[in-house]
Specification:
Two copies of one chain form a homodimer. Chain A is an all-beta fold and about 120 residues long. The first copy, chain A, is built from no helices and ten strands. Chains A and B meet through strand 6 of A and strand 6 of B.
Chain lengths: ~120, ~120
């Protein structure tokens, strides 16, 4: 199947459906490097309309958007629309959420900064 | 232009030509997050036939291959062919090189682990 539409592009395997209370909707998760390693890297795919809840990371996080269309918002800031090629540097302890637009999947790599400082809250 | 051929896919901007003695051939570099930050992430594009010299990283490095075809080799190991979607976890202090096949560009993200431990040698 030939397509110019990056909304369906998945360079890294989509992984497994991730169930939990941290998300509204369906998300897929593939750990490219393991949890608990020096540099955990996740490939995250949000189904249309799926977003995570407000949360923060003790050491901060970086999002590298690889496909689709979605949003990122920090507390007390307007939501920022994201597309393939965008980079988001999330500071430590800053409350935020991210997820897909209602009409598009949304795929990004998520990399913890200073993972030793603790999990997401 | 419509293509299934990921060898030409570039999700992140290609950046600028990088000149220096560390490479045979032409390489392009786009820092997605800055040098000197807590987590420097580079988008690296090797022109066909271009490879870097034997080197190592004090804290280790992770390569996330986003397109093209290339090789990775550690000292005293056979060369490993790489394609879009491959992940390479390079241990600290291990001598290695990576670069493009002779007939293809090669694109990967490169992320330093523990960048505070020092530069590549």
């Amino acid at each position: 199947m030939c397509t110019n539409d990056l909304r369906n592009s998945v360079i890294f395997a989509i992984g497994d459906k991730f169930a939990g209370d941290f998300f509204t909707g369906t998300v897929w998760l593939n750990m490219l490097t393991p949890f608990g390693s020096a540099l955990p890297i996740a490939n995250v795919t949000f189904e249309p309309g799926c977003r995570n809840n407000w949360h923060s990371h003790a050491g901060g996080q970086i999002l590298l958007v690889t496909g689709g269309r979605g949003y990122y918002q920090e507390r007390e800031q307007p939501a920022r629309e994201l597309h393939a090629g965008d980079v988001v540097q999330i500071p430590a302890e800053v409350k935020h959420w991210h997820g897909a637009a209602n009409d598009s999947r949304f795929m990004h790599l998520a990399i913890e900064i200073h993972p030793g400082k603790g999990p997401a809250t």
